[in-house]
Structure prediction request, 200 residues.
Amino acid sequence: MFTLLGFMLQHSRIQKVSQIVRVLVVLFITMQISVFVLLLMLGDKHEGSYQLSENFNFISSAANIDFTGSWSNLAEALSDEGFNALLILGSADLIPSLLIYLSLFKLFGLYKRGLVFTVENIQCIKNIGTVLLGWIALKLLYPLLVTGVLRLSGASDTLSIYMSLGSDELRYLLIGLVIYVIAWVMSEATSLHQEQELVI
Prediction:
């Protein structure tokens, strides 16, 4: 009796927390897309970053996207050549974030429905790991693609080819690998859970 009651309370908490996380994910997606579009339309380039700030009577607000790390030199070179670095680099950097948010939204939707040890959960976790590992490839190869396209199309004759590896990429590699291990452990736990159900 107490075990069933404890399970029901725990399930109720998981549902509430999952709903809160899903709302936060939607908020993050909305904010990230809104800031990107606002900066694209109204932002000013200032010292390697794109900024938009407004001052009201009692409130001051600011939005900022900067290209630090491995893309900073390319962003500066694109701006010097007259290209919109925010559009070229920012849109490519936005896609992996959105894919991770969508996987999290789906994962916590499964948790909200009480589905914890399922193949779908494991796939959502693997998707997040895949995006993080793919982000490394994007960070390394996208600058080559951008400079190649701009030079071959004749839009630029002087843009250098950039390729660099920074601490962000190493961080994504570590986090992506950890997430894959978590997915593997979840897969093993799911197999054990299914075997226990068959025994019962």
Q: What stands out?
A: The helical segments are 2-42, 72-80, 85-112, 119-152, 167-199. Residues 2-199 form one domain.
